[in-house]
Amino acid sequence: MSLCVNPASSILRDRRHLTDFGQPKLFAMYVDKKLQGVDCVQTLSRLNRIFPGKETFVLDFFNDATEVLESFREYYTTAELSGVSDAQIVYDIQEKLDEEGIYHWDEVVAFAQAFFDPKALASKLSYYCQPARERFTKRYKLLRDERSGARAELDHAKADGNTVGAKQTEVLLKEIGQGLDQLDLFKKNLTSFVRAYEFLSQIVFFEDPELEQLCVFAKHLVPLLRPESLDEDEIDISELELTHYRLTKRKEHELKLEGGEDSEGLDPITGLGSGKPHDPDKKRLSEIIEKLNDIFGAEVSDEDQLHFAKGIADRVRRDEDVMAQVNSHSTEQVMHGLFPKRLTDLVLDSMNDQEKLSMEVLDNEGSQKAFALLILRLLADKSSHAIGQ
Q1: Residue 226 contacts residue 359 (beta carbons within 8 Å)
Q2: Of the chain's two ends, which shows fewer C-beta atoms within 10 Å, N or C?
Q3: Does 56 score more than 90 pLDDT?
Q4: Residue 4: inside a domain, yes or no?
Q5: Beta-carbon neighbour count of residue 347 at 10 Å?
């Protein structure tokens, strides 16, 4: 958006495009998310372009002033590069990722085409990531099952005094461990590739479109690779024995049934028809929290769940194209339009600040649909800004 047309214009800027943006007339910034380190410096430094008569200010709803100061202090006086950034590292990481065979390149290309197509359904993104996710999970689970079997063999070999068999099993366990480490490294390298490419592409022009395709694919695939969600190794409790327990008195109550002289009588029937309806805002808030609990469970506080949902809804509301569809189409039509894909992007962008809640939404299609319908309800509710405040 150009500020030259309207002096009162506002700009909503995506974090991925902060460093390539320079508007001298930009004088105020409203911050509604966590900023730290170099991201904090790069974001707030968008205000440092010179323009006659310009006075700047930042209205921050999220960050502590001392933390912002510490982020700038690191780079203000003595910060310097300890070496030259090598653009070749992006290709080196890509080569390592390709060698693992977790994804096929036609899946990457198909995903990128759907990602950059504004008319593509959000379900297509999950569809093209699913094969890679299944390969990773299947390989990880197979190695873990082999490790469990090898551990049992090692115990038997030691019990039988079979030192040769024990050594062979130990070698096998080492190889299995290396295989699991390799899969963990693959996931880590996906994140490293995204970070390296997003940083270097701001200062180096990569003519290879494959890098951009792999970047968007990797960014969506990483949250889906969750080896920790597999069944953990079973803990043997067969020899667990309860030896003692303790009862602790916490509080004592005296419940009286016999009425004394001062006992109050029952009130007569005088208020029929004088009942008041439930507060609609409180009822609506209760229903929303109940649906949030169905999605996220009870481990996260209601306040955090509501803050997360309202934050996503507010960011969707700023997208004019999405809101045009939301305001003029039925829920079923909206769920086949721009909204689902935009919602997925916003949840992915929230991974850094709300990883647990984001993963609960991304983990299965049922949670995604339930969360999407809840966000649509918040968008349709004109009083949603007042809910929870």
Answers
A1: yes
A2: C
A3: no
A4: no
A5: 23
